[in-house]
Each structure stands twice: as structure tokens, then as C-alpha cells.
Write a structure and sequence with these properties.
CATH topology of the domain at 25-90: Ybab, Chain: A
Structural class: alpha+beta
Family: Belongs to the YbaB/EbfC family.
Keywords: Coiled coil, Cytoplasm, DNA-binding
Organism: Bernardetia litoralis (strain ATCC 23117 / DSM 6794 / NBRC 15988 / NCIMB 1366 / Fx l1 / Sio-4)
Strand content: 15-25%
CATH class of the domain at 25-90: Alpha Beta
Low-confidence stretches: none
Order of helices and strands: HEEEHH
Oligomer: single chain
GO molecular function: DNA binding
Number of helices: 3
Strand order of the largest sheet: 1-2-3
Distance between the termini: 35 Å
CATH architecture of the domain at 25-90: 2-Layer Sandwich
CATH superfamily of the domain at 25-90: Nucleoid-associated protein YbaB-like domain
Function: Binds to DNA and alters its conformation. May be involved in regulation of gene expression, nucleoid organization and DNA protection.
Length: 111
């Protein structure tokens, strides 16, 4: 019975740590750009776009479709980079907490 209580204590400890790590994801940022840097997007580890910068020269352009494509490309690159950084952060922060189980990816938890 003591072993079960110890195991439940470890599970609670792990859940608490995972929640803490997930809350830290908001502080992780990654940038993506398109059009040679004319459009830049910044995303956080929670997969939220937190900043979008568009060069004024492209805003003055009449090519709305090109601007839309560049914004989409920059946002997608920022989100991909943020996801990668988030996975790395989750792996580093939870290292040693659980046995290495093939196929188990903690990077996607809570995001």
C-alpha cells in the first residue's frame, strides 16, 4: 500500500511540474519571416501570434494577394519555430521525470 501512495505522490508531483512547464510556454518566442524580411511574425510557445511587422513599402503596394501570402508564410514559419522550441523546452524540463517510453511525446501536452 505504501508503494501505491508513493506512486500517486510521484504522479501528482509530475502533473504539477507539467502544468508549471506549460505555463512557461508563453515566455518562449520564435520569429518567422517572408519576402526577404518584409513581413515578420512572432509566436509564443502557446502557438499564439504576439507580434506582426509589415514593411511600409509592401503596405503601399497595390498587390493585396502578395501581402496576404507573405503574412501567411511568416505566421506559419513563426508557429513552426515556436512549436519546435516548445517541444525542446518540454523535453528538457521533464527530463528524468518519467521513463523513456518510445512514442510518448510530452511536447504536445496542453498546447
Amino acid at each position: 500500500m505504501k508503494d501505491m501512495m508513493k506512486m500517486f505522490g510521484k504522479v501528482r508531483e509530475m502533473q504539477s511540474k507539467l502544468q508549471e512547464v506549460q505555463e512557461e510556454l508563453v515566455n518562449i518566442t520564435a520569429e518567422g519571416e517572408a519576402g526577404g524580411g518584409m513581413v515578420k511574425a512572432v509566436a509564443n510557445g502557446k502557438k499564439q501570434i504576439i507580434k506582426l511587422d509589415i514593411d511600409t513599402d509592401i503596405i503601399k503596394s497595390d498587390d493585396k494577394e502578395m501581402l496576404q501570402d507573405l503574412v501567411v508564410a511568416a505566421v506559419n514559419k513563426a508557429l513552426e519555430a515556436a512549436e519546435e522550441k516548445s517541444k525542446e523546452h518540454m523535453q528538457k524540463s521533464t527530463e528524468g521525470m518519467m521513463p523513456n517510453i518510445p512514442g510518448m511525446d510530452l511536447g504536445g501536452m496542453g498546447m
